[in-house]
Amino acid sequence: MADLVKQILAKPIQLADQVIKAADEAASFKQECAELKSKTDKLAGLLRQAARASNDLYERPTRRILDDTEQVLDKALALVLKCRGHGLVKRVFTIIPAAAFRKMSSQLENSIGDVSWLLRVSASAGDRDDGYLGLPPIATNEPILCLIWEQIAILYTGSLEDRSDAAASLVSLARDNDRYGKLIIEEGGVGPLLKLVKEGKLEGQENAARAIGLLGRDPESVEHLIHAGTCSVFAKILKEGSMKVQAVVVWAVSELVARYPKCQDLFVQHNIIRLLVGHLAFETVQEHSKYAVVSKATSMHQAVVLASNNNANANANIGANKGNDLDEDRSQIPHPFGNKQSLNRMHTVVTNSMALKGQTNGLNQDNVAKSNGNNGAMLNSVSNHQQSLSLSGVSNKAREMEDPATKTYMKAMAARALWHLAKGNSPICKSITESRALLCFAVLLEKGSKDVQYNSAMALMEITAVAEEDAELRRSAFKPNSPACKAVVDQILRIIEKGDLELLVPCIKAIGNLARTFRATETRIISPLVKLLDEQEPEVFREACIGLTKFACTDNYLHLDHSKSIISAGGAKHLVQLVYFGEQNVQGCALILLCYIALNVPDSEELAQAEVLTVLEWASKQATMIQDENVEKLLPEAKGKLELYQSRGSRGFR
C-alpha cells in the first residue's frame, strides 16, 4: 500500500515543482504568478508530507484527492507557462483573462484543503485532533462520501473508543439509506469493521456487528461480506464472546441469511448450527439430555449405553399395527396424543423423558460396572465433565450472570437465525432436528417472550415445510413416539385453539406440513383447524383451508379418514359460506378443499344437507374460480361424484 501511494504521489509532486520553477521565470502577470507559486509551494509541502506518511494514508480518498490535485496542477502549469517571455509579438497575441488566475488560485486552495484533510483524517490516534475535522472541498458534490471516508479512516487508525464511535456512525448511515451501505462496502469499510468485531471492546464489537448486519441489504453485498471472512469472525464470537455481542452477531447472521440464502451452507461449515442450538437450549432444557447430538468425544461405554437404549426402544415397537401411516412403518408406533391434554403436558413429557433417560443410563451403567470393573465410575466422570462445559465455549456461570433481557434477546435471535438457516435446506433441518432444538422450540412456544415465540413458530414452520417434501427427514424428525415431536405438536395445537393471531398462521402451516404424519384416529388435530374456518381474518381462513387440504388431498394416504373427520367437525357448512361469500383468494382455497371432500366422501349426508352439489354447480359458472388449474381439474370430477351419489341436494345415499 505504501509503495502504491508513493507512486501515485510522484506525479503531483513533480508537477508542483515545475509550476514553481515556471512561476519564477514569468515575464508577464508576475504578481499573479507569484501568488500561484506561493500556493503551489504550500501544496507541494503537503504532498511531500503525505509521501512520508504513506503507510497511514487511507487508499480510497487518497486516490480520489490526488487524481483531482494532479489535474489542477496540470492546468496551473499550462497557465504559468503562458506567462514566460517568448518575444513581444507572442506576448501581444497571448491573451490571458484575469479571471483565469482567480479561478486557478481557488482550485489550488481547494487542493490544499483536500490534502490537508487527507492528512488529518489518516493520522494515527495520537496525532489526530479531537475536534471536528470538517469536510474537504472535494465533498461539495457528495458530502456523505467524505463522512464515510472519515469514519472508515478512524476504523483503520483510531483508538478502540474512537473506532467504536465510528462504527456507530456507520450504523446510522447504513440504517438510513441503502446507498450509503453500498458506499461503505465500496470504500473498504468491511475489513476494519470485522477487525473491530474481533478485537474491540464490548460496545465497539456490538456496533461493528450491527453495522455488518445492516450492510447486507442485497445478495451482492452479502456475498462481499462473506468473502471478507464474516463467517469465521462470527463463529469465533459465538464461541468466546460476551452474550450481548453474541446476540447482535446472531441477529446479523439472520439478516445475512435472509437476504442471501445461498450463504446458509457457508455458515454451517463454521458450526453455527451447534452454537445457535446451544444458546437456544441454555436455561431452556438440560444441557445434556437424550435429545443432544452425541459428541465425537463420547466414550465407547457411553456409545454402548446409547445403543442399548435405542435397541430397547426399537424392540418395544415391533409388532405394532401396519397400514395407517403414509410414511411406511411409522404407524407401527402408537400415537402419543390422547383426547384431553393440559396446557402443561409438554413439561410433563420433558420431565418424564429426562427421568427415564436417567434411569435407563443408571441401569446400563450398573451392568457395565459389574462386567467391567470401574467402567461405570469412569462413565459418570466423563458425563459430569461434559456437563460442566458449555456448547458455546463460554462458561455457564458467566452466561447465568447476564441480565434477563439479554438472555431473552439472545434466544429470540437464535430462533430467528435458525428460522432463516432452515428455510428450504434439508441437511440443515436434519442437523437442527437431531439436536435439542425441537424440544427447545416447544418450551419457548409456551414460556418465551412474544419475539421468542414468533421466531420459534417461524422456525418450526420452515422445518416442517422441508420435512413435508423430504420423507426421510419426516420419518426421522417427527416420529409419533418422539417426546420432542409430542411437545412441539402439543404447543402448536394449544396456540391454534387459543387463537393467538401473531402465531396462528405459522402454526397452521406447520400442522398442515405434518399432515402425513398423523394417524386416522388422531381426530383432535382436525377439529381446531375446522373451527378456524369461522374466524374473521381472511389470512386465517386461507391458511386453514390450505392446511386442511393437505389432510384431505389424495397425496395423503389417510385422506378418506381425514375427510370424514372434517365433515364430522362441521367443516362442510363453513366451506360453503366461504365459497359463496369469502374473499377471492379465500374462495379458491375453500373450493379446492370442498372438491377433495366431495371426491372422498360423495355419499355423505352432511354434504347433501349443506347442498354442496349446488355450490359446485354455481362455482363452475364463475369465471374467476375456474381459472385455477386445480379447480379446473377437480371441480368436474367432484360434481360427477356427487351427482352419482346424490340425486338431490337434500338427500344422500350411503
From TrEMBL:
SUPFAM superfamilies xrefs: ARM repeat
The keyword Translocase is assigned to this record: no
Coiled-coil annotated residue ranges, if any: 19-56
Keyword Coiled coil belongs to the record: yes
Keywords of this entry: Coiled coil, Repeat
Pfam families: Arm, DUF7792
Residue intervals of the DUF7792 domain: 6-122
Name recorded for this polypeptide: Armadillo repeat only 2
Taxonomic lineage from the root: Eukaryota, Viridiplantae, Streptophyta, Embryophyta, Tracheophyta
